[in-house]
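Quick one, tokens below. Sequence please?
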């Protein structure tokens, strides 16, 4: 086809409202909020009942989000639920946009880790007791008002908590009954109790990538519907 004919055809398509096909905007560019930083992790499930999906970590460079890595992800055994109305003990992963307060692990931090990283000791616990003043907090040792039966002894989860990032769900101002101890951690045997998990090699790569100076956040949601990631 002659160049003039190609130009005429392209103009006709534009007049008809059919723009030339191009790459779709990356997922973060279609979200309502990404937290204001230049790093973002998206954990996306096909639908609310899913226990598996995809986790992608992104860099904002020169005004455009670029994928830095991806991995298969696992979610709660009962799928995902709106974070603002989640109830503790439901084995659901809360959706929404959250910060990443710090990292921790039963294994040493991978070389290059920049996030504050707490090593797990024999007396390291995550208090999940709704009646405790330490609710939804790391404690060493377990305080007297926090029941061990209502908490996680972190050293007991050598596989899952080999490396982990705390997800800031219900963290800054904990509301009792909503849930505690929501992390991004290494895969266990199957679905989680409400956390997001990825293979160990992916978790290590994430820890060497994430930079607290760049305001990293994690957003969890579904591909479409009421819990769609693009809502957050």
């Amino acid at each position: 086809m002659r160049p003039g004919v190609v130009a005429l055809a392209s103009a006709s398509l534009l007049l008809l409202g059919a723009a030339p096909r191009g790459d779709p905007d990356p997922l973060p560019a279609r979200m309502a909020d990404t937290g204001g930083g230049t790093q973002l992790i998206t954990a996306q499930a096909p639908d609310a009942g899913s226990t598996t999906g995809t986790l992608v970590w992104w860099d904002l460079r020169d005004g455009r989000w670029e994928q830095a890595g991806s991995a298969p992800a696992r979610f709660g055994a009962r799928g995902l639920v709106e974070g603002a109305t989640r109830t503790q003990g439901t084995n659901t992963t809360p959706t929404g946009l959250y910060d990443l307060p710090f990292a921790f692990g039963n294994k040493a931090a991978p070389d290059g880790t920049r996030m504050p990283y707490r090593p797990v000791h024999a007396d390291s616990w995550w208090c999940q007791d709704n009646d405790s003043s330490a609710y939804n907090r790391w404690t060493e040792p377990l305080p007297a008002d926090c029941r061990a039966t209502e908490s996680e002894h972190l050293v007991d989860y050598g596989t899952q908590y080999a490396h982990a990032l705390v997800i800031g769900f219900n963290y800054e101002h904990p509301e009792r009954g909503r849930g505690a101890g929501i992390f991004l951690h290494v895969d266990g045997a199957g679905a989680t109790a409400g956390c997001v998990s990825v293979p160990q090699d992916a978790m290590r790569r994430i820890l060497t990538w994430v930079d607290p100076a760049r305001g990293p956040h994690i957003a969890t949601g579904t591909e479409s519907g009421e819990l769609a990631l693009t809502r957050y």
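The chain has a mean pLDDT of 92. The CA atoms of residues 11 and 19 lie 9 Å apart.
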